[in-house]
Amino acid sequence: MPHHPKKRFGQNFLRDQTVLQNIIACIQPQTDQHVLEIGPGQAALTHLLVDKVKRLDVVEIDFDLIPDLQNLATRHPALKVHQADVLKFDLRQLTNQEYSLRVVGNLPYNISTPLLFHLLEYKNLLRDIHVMLQDEVVERITATPGHHAYGRLSVMLQYHCQCEKLLDVPPTAFHPMPQVNSAVVRLIPYAQLPLQAHDYSRFAAVVQAAFAERRKMIRNTLKSFLSAEDFVALNLDPQLRAENLSVADFVRISNYLSSRKSRSDYPGSRLL
Ligand code: SAM
Prior knowledge:
Elements: E1 13-14, H1 17-27, E2 34-38, H2 44-49, E3 55-60, H3 66-75, E4 79-83, E5 101-106, H4 112-120, E6 126-134, H5 135-142, H6 152-160, E7 161-169, E8 174-175, E9 182-189, H7 200-212, H8 218-221, H9 228-234, H10 247-265
Parallel strand pairs: 2-3, 2-5, 3-4, 5-6
Antiparallel strand pairs: 1-8, 6-9, 7-9
Residues 9-14, 39-42, 44-45, 59-62, 65, 85-87, 106, 108, 111 line the site of S-adenosylmethionine.
């Protein structure tokens, strides 16, 4: 029976062979590598990957697509099929080797942001991530300060990963055609962070607060974190907006808060 694409699972299947070959050329899979494909669907990418790598795990939520994937797996021992919601899937069951797993996928656009944050939780297992996303989301991921697309997603992903847009993909490459343009992005998690927040949850909280109302000045959005004196100590213009601050600025603010807190925690610190 033919499979009818399901909107609720964001099913837009890739049909354009040139685009598929271009994606493979970006990934450059190697025979000693371990790949995780998210949302294999009707296996357009899976077919091109399965003979090229040592192991290919695929995670697909749609039960109706599992039998064909299992069939493919009987012919290719490298392929392991997991029927699961990738947002609940623990990547530690696939490997414990640091920076080894390569993640690929033409992602369901409705879950792309939570999925990227889910992947970040396992970033020390990931060698790289090559994913197709809505073009607008790729723009947000790779945007630099001052750009209209620059926001929380840009800061949080650029903190952890080197981010690079690789390919534009038009709606005509898919069936059914999505209403938006798509793009492939490469994320490479840093083994050594170039900028290190001493307290990661504080860094994340500052970024979230600053972008909660991106048109407002940081004097207002960060007022629960920074006083007028703090802005002076940081040599930071309180009239700036979140979109003007670089990843380095956010790290600097959160590290300043961490050092101020640890000084005040230290007995007698008020006298220092
Ligand atoms: N990779 C295929 C291709 O390029 O033709 C399919 C891409 S389609 C945009 C997204 C795929 O992700 C679908 O097969 C869909 O069923 C699957 N999917 C959607 N939500 C998922 C989830 N939460 N966990 C795992 N797979 C999911």
